[in-house]
Design brief:
- With about 140 residues, the protein is mainly beta.
- It contains two helices and 15 strands.
- The strands form six sheets. It has a four-stranded parallel β-sheet with strand order 3-8-12-13, with no helix packed on it. Strands 2-7-11 form a three-stranded parallel β-sheet, with no helix packed on it. It has a two-stranded parallel sheet with strand order 1-6.
- The longest helix is centred in the C-terminal third of the chain and has 7 residues.
- The radius of gyration is 14 Å and the shape is globular.
Length: about 140
C-alpha cells in the first residue's frame, strides 16, 4: 500500500503525498509507505507528510517513502517520521521536520537534479508545503 502507488517497477518522480493511509487487515505481511509500498523502481524528488495508520496484525513494514528499498534508488526524497515507522534511514528517504518542509528552500531542494523548476513554494497554498509548478 502506498500513498502514490502500491508496487512499482518503473520510475516515480516529482510527486508528494499528503493523504492519510489507513490499513485494516489481518492478512500476512503488509508493506505500507507514503509513496510506494514496495517494488524495484527508482523514486526521486518526492515527499510524504501523510499519516500512516495500521490497525493490523502480522508482519508490518512501514516507511516514509518506501518500506522495502531493495534493488532501487531513492534519491532526494523526504518524509516526516512517525512513531510506527520501522523502516527509517537514508535508504528509505531523509527525515525532515514539518517546519523545514514548509520553507522555500525545501522546494529548491526538491528541484535538485531537475532540468527545470518543477517545484514551487507558496506559503498560502497546500498548507505551506511545496507544490508542483502546474498547480499554480
Amino acid at each position: 500500500v502506498g500513498g502514490i502507488v502500491g508496487n512499482t517497477t518503473s520510475e516515480t518522480l516529482n510527486c508528494y503525498n499528503r493523504g492519510n493511509i489507513e490499513v485494516n487487515t489481518n492478512e500476512g505481511s503488509m508493506y505500507i509507505a507514503g509513496i510506494s509500498g514496495t517494488g524495484s523502481g527508482n523514486i526521486r524528488n518526492c515527499y510524504n507528510v501523510g499519516n500512516i495508520v495500521c490497525n493490523s496484525k502480522g508482519n508490518l513494514f512501514i516507511g516514509g517513502i518506501r518500506c522495502l528499498p531493495n534493488n532501487t534508488n531513492i534519491t532526494n526524497c523526504y518524509y516526516i517520521i512517525q512513531d510506527n515507522f520501522n523502516n527509517t534511514g537514508e535508504e528509505s528517504g531523509i527525515i525532515k521536520k514539518e517546519d523545514e518542509m514548509k520553507q522555500a528552500s525545501f522546494a529548491d531542494l526538491l528541484n535538485s537534479g531537475n532540468d527545470e523548476s518543477i517545484w514551487k513554494y507558496d506559503k498560502n497554498k497546500n498548507e505551506g508545503y511545496p507544490i508542483l509548478n502546474w498547480q499554480l
